[in-house]
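User: I'm writing a tutorial on reading structure tokens. Could you give me a worked example: one chain, its sequence, then its tokens, then a sentence or two explaining what the tokens reveal?
Assistant: Sure. Here is the example chain.
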Amino acid sequence: MVSLEQIRKLEARVSQAVSTILELREENTTLRQKLEKYQEKIDQLELLIAQYRDSQKEIEEGILNALRQLDHLEDDALRASSSTPSSIPQEPFSEHDEAEDIEGKIVIPDKTNTEEAKEVKKSGELDIF
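And here are its predicted structure tokens:
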């Protein structure tokens, strides 16, 4: 025969099991919501990675195209220089040459400044005072 004490213990166990099941269901719901958020974040990051890769490919293609153009330009310049000798004499720049500022006005260098610049070049130090 089943005693009243056994029924009470059974009822307590069932009540505890129901309580545990409810807690686990709540935890399961919370974990599923977190999983959905994480999955959305993963999808966003994968999209950003794909966009980054595409832009990297475009950048690489642009750089390679620019390098090819520079190679062609260099090849053309080498062909042109080897086929015609240079007829323009190269004159070295001297201190007495006239310089122009941004507006095209002739600038005459101040002798004291050029002498100071020569001294700075010789000593390797700058006098800031």
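What the tokens reveal: Residues 42 and 127 are 59 Å apart (CA to CA). Residues 4-83 form the longest helix (80 residues).
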